[in-house]
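Figure S4 source data
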Amino acid sequence: MRIWDIEPEKLCRQHLLGEHRELHAIWSILTQGKEGYSRHPETLRWEGKLAALYKRHEALVEEMGVRGY
C-alpha cells in the first residue's frame, strides 16, 4: 500500500491504477474508521492530511482521463 510521491504522468499504467485503488482504501480507513491497514505506515502518513490526499486523487483521475481510462 503506497501513494507515490512523483507526478502521475510519470507512473506506468500498473502503478497509476494501483495507486488510485490504494488511495481509495486509505480514504475509507481514514474517513470511515475502517480497521484494515489502519496502522500501516502509509495510512498513518495521511492522517490529518485529507485535503492533500483529495488533491492527489484529483491529479490521478486527471491523468487517467488523459490516458483514456
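Figure S5 source data
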Amino acid sequence: LGVRQGRSLPRLILFGDPEKGPVARVMEDFSEFFKGRAEVIAVCHIARCTPEVLRDCDFAVVLGGDGTIISAAKALSEAEVPVVGVNLGKLGFLAEFSVSEFKQMYDDIVSGKAPVEGRMMLGCQVSEGAHEGREKFRAKAVNDVFVAAGPPFRVIELKIGVDGQQVASCVTDGLIVSTPTGSTAYNLSAGGPILDGSMEAMVITPICPHSLSFRPIVIDASSVVEISFLRINEGTTVSIDGQTSSGLAIHDVVRIARDRSSFLVVNNPVRTRWDTL
C-alpha cells in the first residue's frame, strides 16, 4: 500500500483532539512538515469526518494514544485506510511511531516500504431472547467486547456457548472476548494470554471467576460466541472497547463474531512487536 497511481503527492488525513495536551502543537508542527511532501485533505476529529473524505485519502495519521486510534478504527476500517499511529499518550501497541520516528521514516511509509498489517475486528449483537429476537444493540470492536457485572456489584451468573455448543457456566464479575490486538489490553490485566497481533483468533477470559477450573480459552476466529444470563445486576452492561456500552436484561443474548472488515495498521519497521511489548 502506498500513494495511489496518478498522484504526485500522497493524500493524508490528520486526526487528533487538539484539546488533549501536546496534540495541538504536533498538529501545527506536522502542518509545516507536510508542505511539499503531502496533500493534507482534512485535519479533524474522527467524529466530524465523512466517509467520502476517508475514501479519498491514502493514509490516516492519528495523533494520540491507542485509545485515540481505537476511536478512529471503526470508520477507517470501512474505508480500508491504513493508519499511522503517532504516540503522544502512554500506550503504544497501536501508536507505534514517535514524532521523530514518523518524520525519519515518512518516505518509507508513503512509498509502501513500511509493513502494513491487517488486524481482525469483532462484531457484537445484543438480541432479546435466544431465538434471534429483536436486535437491541450492534457495534464493532478493535480490542474487546466485555460484559461487566455493574451496580450493585454482586457477582453475575452467565452461560457461554461457542458455535452452538455449551462451553461453560460461570459465576463471575464479568467476561471478556478479545481480539489478538486486544489481548494486551483488558484481557492481559485479567490474566489472559498475549496473542500475536497478526493472528486470527479470539480469547474468552473470565473476570475474577468464582471457580478453580475456568481459565482463558483461545478459539478460532471463525467461531461465534454466545453469552446468555442466569443472574445479572440492574447495572450489568456489555461494553465495546471500553468506549460504548449497552445495558443488559436477563433474557438478552450477546453474540460475538468476527467482523467482515479489518483494521489496517502501518507497523514501525525498526521496532519489533517484542520491543513494544
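The chain has a mean pLDDT of 90. The first strand starts at residue 11 and ends at 15.
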